[in-house]
Amino acid sequence: MRRFGYRQPNPRHQHRLQHKPRLNEAFRLLRKNGFIARQGFMCCMGCACVALDALAKKRAEAGKPAKGIVYYHRQDAEYFEGGYKGTLMIRFMSPSDMDADTAKVAQETIEIFTAAGVPTTWDQEIDHCIEVDLDVITEESSTVSAV
Length: 147
Ligand SMILES: [Zn+2]
Hints:
alpha+beta; 5-stranded mixed sheet; binds zinc ion; disordered C terminus; single chain
């Protein structure tokens, strides 16, 4: 029987990000609160920024400006899935690109993540990512008991 060049999934690369209900909830809440929020968006930061700028512009033109832009790109996800430091880098921007607004986007993102049960670490530097710990948000390794 002919094979169709189907690649067998490598069990060592089972994507742990499939088990991320709390992270999904955090991103859902961000969108509900007027943010542009995307997971695994585009291949890298350069491509993501271009695409997100365009999205933000579209929103502004439609009279519904985004409060902020929050995302991680596919390379971030791959590091995360590979268990790199066990940390997912959450990236954020302000449509205005003003420092004070960017800091506000980060603060509000952290509040929403916390509400969704996703603890974060951030050093208050607007050009540094918000970090999310792998073990806390993946279902299979969660130590938080069900309620
Ligand atoms: Zn790219």
